[in-house]
């Protein structure tokens, strides 16, 4: 049945009853962006800019950064597509020589992501100038979001900095505090994007790299789904986009649950777009909502998966 759905999928991001869901790609560089542009996606939901600089000792100047970003934006310079650029998420699992604070006892809880701008505002300002230059040069619709946002003040300050360059501003929901205050975050920004990898890590207090804790670092954990639900519902109330750009979006069954929780876009590795799109095309929004409610009520991740599957099994 799954194979049949894949074969007949039209490439449109919507449920069987026509509820639209934007399917987006996660990219890291020009090569992955070019590959993604050939996939049936509405754009890029996560451009991880820090991955461009893992081998760099020194910060590239604004012009060099602009050239790097333009190569990623250019394949998406079409009227109906857009690219969400994430500002540097340096630190912890992604050390960038010129932006990582060394000798932290708890790097995952340290000065990483947007927090780098507290002590080094110039780093963010130069990156925003480069992103804006690349957007102008390519004509690609460009949104910008910050990783590791924990407070409403951070969201407000970041949005002001981004809008000063004429771009749409959003923040990632990766820290439970951001999900708990999703309404107030949304009052400050144009969109939210949930990073389920880190949101799971910080909700469950379990290192995402620790294989012994894989049962905890599972986005099907009901506590994680509850935070996604709060965020999705906040977005529905004000009519602003709330996406998911963590690994969770690439799981076809979980993707249905996320849509049922109010998520409006799913960003994933290009290879996952077809299986996810085909799966969504075979379920109604009502079924997605039933799957979401069933998963939320489950005791643990494996029961949540079973409960979501059961909704589809007894469809008429
Ligand atoms: C996430 O945390 O889910 C996310 C998308 O960001 P990254 O995996 O790059 O930390
Ligand atoms: Mg993250």
From TrEMBL:
Q: What is its main location?
A: cytoplasm
Q: What class of enzyme is it?
A: transferase
Domain PEP-utilising enzyme C-terminal per the UniProt entry, residue ranges: 14-281
Catalytic activity, EC: 2.7.3.9
Instruction: Give the catalytic activity.
Output: L-histidyl-[protein] + phosphoenolpyruvate = N(pros)-phospho-L-histidyl-[protein] + pyruvate
Alphabetically list the UniProt keywords.
Cytoplasm, Kinase, Magnesium, Metal-binding, Phosphotransferase system, Sugar transport, Transferase, Transport
Q: Does the keyword S-adenosyl-L-methionine apply?
A: no
Cytoplasm found in the keyword field: yes
| Top-rank taxon, per record | Bacteria
Q: Which cofactor does it need?
A: Mg(2+)
Query: Where's it found, cell-wise?
Result: Cytoplasm
UniProt lists the family membership as follows: Belongs to the PEP-utilizing enzyme family.
Briefly, what is this protein's role?
General (non sugar-specific) component of the phosphoenolpyruvate-dependent sugar phosphotransferase system (sugar PTS). This major carbohydrate active-transport system catalyzes the phosphorylation of incoming sugar substrates concomitantly with their translocation across the cell membrane. Enzyme I transfers the phosphoryl group from phosphoenolpyruvate (PEP) to the phosphoryl carrier protein (HPr).
Q: What is this protein called?
A: Phosphoenolpyruvate-protein phosphotransferase
Q: Which organism is it from?
A: Nocardioides vastitatis
